[in-house]
Amino acid sequence: MNSTIETLINHRSDRSFLDKAIPDDVLDSIIQAAYRAPTSIHSQQVSLVITRDKATKAKLAELAGGQPWIAQAPVFITFVLDMYKTAEGMKLTGETQIAHESIESVVSGSIDVGIALGTAMAAARSAGLGVVPIGGIRRDPLEVIKLLNLPEMTMPINGLTLGYVDEPAALKPRLPLATFRHEEAYRTEGLNTLIVQHNDELTQHWKNIDRNGGESWSNTVANYYKNIYFPNVLPALKKQGFGTEK
């Protein structure tokens, strides 16, 4: 197994960081890696906002639902779906962008953001940094938009903490590979049995690391997905000029 694959397979979300700055050349290389990540039709509809200011990080931690590691980490990156940039580029041709009015563009742009995010995480971990992606950046997106001065036709999709790790996180168990890998067609047979197996394994994992109140996988997803997870996303998308009806 080569070192790149080993780094990816051993991913963990670290939430404890040292008070140690990330050298500019290390941060620059991580950003450069994300910058070179592929995008649909070479649209380059992704932008990154780099936050090192302590007050801004503290506010982002609050907006994300109270996640102290955002404030603790030396760098926080907000990954933005950016169709303002593409609209401006189209003006040079005399054309008007309408693609942002479709759900397809939201899906396509979010995929491109995800590719950039994954690339940045791999680059950061290869440089000896810890990371944790932050979906909570969508909890109150209009306030994040205001805080980061994001223009119309942009949307904060995810965030990423970067820092040198203080207390490493444990490698968390996953659902059995058979629930993830399907040969030729999706297979539903035996899924419930495999989920029960993972519930038991994950519950034991929490006990092994002395995490009181650790839940099974089924309980975790039930607690979140019995509700609309972040109900402010759709109003924010509409306010930013995105459409979901086409």
Report on the architecture of this protein.
The chain is α+β, with helices and mostly antiparallel strands. It has two domains: 3-170, NADH Oxidase, CATH 3.40.109; 172-237, no CATH class. It has ten helices and four strands, in the order ααβααβααβαβααα. It has a four-stranded antiparallel sheet with strand order 1-2-4-3, sandwiched between helices. Helix 2 packs antiparallel against helix 6. The longest helix is centred in the middle third of the chain and has 24 residues, at 103-126. It is globular.
Please describe the structure with a list of short key phrases separated by commas or semicolons.
246 residues, alpha+beta, NADH Oxidase, 2 domains, four-stranded antiparallel sheet, 10 helices, 43% helix
Topology:
Layout: H1 3-9, H2 24-35, E1 46-51, H3 54-63, H4 68-72, E2 75-82, H5 84-91, H6 103-126, E3 130-134, H7 141-147, E4 154-163, H8 191-208, H9 217-225, H10 233-239
Antiparallel strand pairs: 1-2, 2-4, 3-4
Helix pairs in contact: 2-6
- DSSP strand tally: 4
Strand content: 5-15%
Fourth-level CATH superfamily of the largest domain: NADH Oxidase
Compressed to H and E, one letter per element, the order equals HHEHHEHHEHEHHH
